[in-house]
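Re: the request from the purification team.
They wanted to know what the chain is likely to look like in 3D before they choose a buffer screen. I agreed to run a prediction and write the result into the notebook, where they can find it.
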Amino acid sequence: MDGDGLHVGQPPFFKGQNYELWKMRMIGFIQYNGMELINVIKNSIPTLIDKSGELFAFESMTEEEKRICQNNAKARHFIMCVLSEGEMSNVHAMVSAKEMWDTLALTYEGSKEVEEKEEKKKFSKEKKIRISA
């Protein structure tokens, strides 16, 4: 992603660089296409696979389950369409958009644990600099 603007309705392409900018633009794009899609990305969806590993029959789903399933498919499609081949290989087999989104976040933002550890290191360094000054 370079600093160029995007056309309205055009999703931002992600090549593995400038994740924070991509994430901000992608959230805007997803919201533009339906606020309910953000819920699918932020929240787990009900499992669509039975105990034998088969997908539940669409006909046996409630209307609410069908709506959630459709929104998950839309959100997954948006995410898959904006990833480079290298990024796609990390998430293409995931069933939920949330799992895809969380995997990208973990890859480029790190876990909260790692983030907290880095903050503590930074604070410790700043404290040592202030003490020695």
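For the purification team: DSSP finds six helices and no strands in the chain.
Please add any questions underneath this entry.
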